[in-house]
Design brief:
Elements lengths: L3 H11 L17 H9 L7 H10 L8 H15 L6 H9 L7 H12 L1 H4 L2 H5 L6 E2 L1 H11 L6 H17 L3 E2 L4 E3 L6 H13 L23 H10 L4 E5 L2 E5 L6 H11 L3
Antiparallel strand pairs: 1-3, 2-3, 4-5
């Protein structure tokens, strides 16, 4: 019989999350530029077949060979899902065109939900005070401790560069050669995605605002409740705050079956 964690992961996988020990960041960053190019050339209602056509046949990403195009599509699919049946990807596609400034954090949030390798570095980066220099060697040390004896020195260096590249693209780090911890631009669209991921994991009310997802925002410069109110005014979610009691709903984000799965997952630790 599967243990409780296995059962929870199975349910969350049906809602768009990925688990395990492997992920594209062993070979790639979160591919923000490629994602932007692909989404700008396809409809928000595009099917996976449409993405295959765009990437492999039409080469909208400008890759030099068919093999490179197929590999790019495979990594994008692992990172983002790329199918309308995936609730996390549907939310990404829904929020993506609304504000270009929100796109880096949207991409990071979904990548964290779907790449266990990237997820394993989240605590390290987010616990660094703003302005702290982050060396590649320090990232390598974290990865080496997390995955002892798994990566060669060369692979560890490449892995660390990919991870740092993603956190830089997202605005959590700044700098080219020397990188420093920074605060990403807070946007209602990104806040909506962070709350939605927390919602999928089974949280409600105030607990939505205290999940690890919210650590992606620098809360000294971003007011999550103000962002939630702004998102509510824009119709991205429903946010009510009366007497300190918070309620957040996501109308139209989940099918009845997906909502049933979400509720089942919320009762499994």
């Amino acid at each position: 019989m599967a243990n409780v964690t296995d059962q929870r992961q199975r349910l969350l996988s049906q809602l768009g999350f990925r688990f395990g020990i492997n992920g594209p960041h062993a070979a790639r960053t979160m591919m923000l530029d490629d994602l932007r190019a692909l989404f700008s050339h396809t409809s928000p209602s595009a099917t996976y077949k449409d993405y295959v056509t765009a990437v492999v046949e039409e080469n909208v990403l400008g890759k030099p060979t068919k093999k490179a195009r197929e590999l790019a599509l495979r990594h994008l699919t692992t990172l983002y899902g790329m199918e309308s049946e995936n609730p996390v990807f549907r939310a990404l596609r829904r929020l993506w065109p609304l504000d270009e400034a929100a796109q880096p954090l949207l991409a990071l949030a979904v990548s964290l939900a779907r790449d266990p390798l990237l997820k394993s570095t989240q605590k390290f980066f987010l616990t660094q005070p703003l302005g702290t220099p982050i060396s590649r060697e320090s990232v390598e040390a974290v990865l080496g401790a997390t995955y002892p004896n798994r990566f060669s020195a060369a692979s560890l260096k490449s892995f660390a560069q990919n991870v740092a590249g993603t956190w830089t693209s997202a605005g959590i780090l700044v700098g080219r050669v020397r990188k420093f911890r920074a605060a990403p631009k807070p946007c209602p669209e990104a806040l909506t995605m962070l709350l939605f991921l927390s919602h999928l994991e089974g949280r409600t009310g105030q607990r939505l605002f205290s999940s690890d997802w919210m650590n992606l925002l620098d809360q000294s410069s971003a007011d999550p409740e103000a962002l939630a109110a702004s998102a509510s005014h824009r119709g991205l979610l429903v946010f009510m705050n009366a007497g300190g009691v918070k309620e957040v709903r996501f109308p139209g984000y989940l099918t009845p079956l997906e909502e049933q799965i979400r509720q089942e997952a919320s009762h499994v630790d």
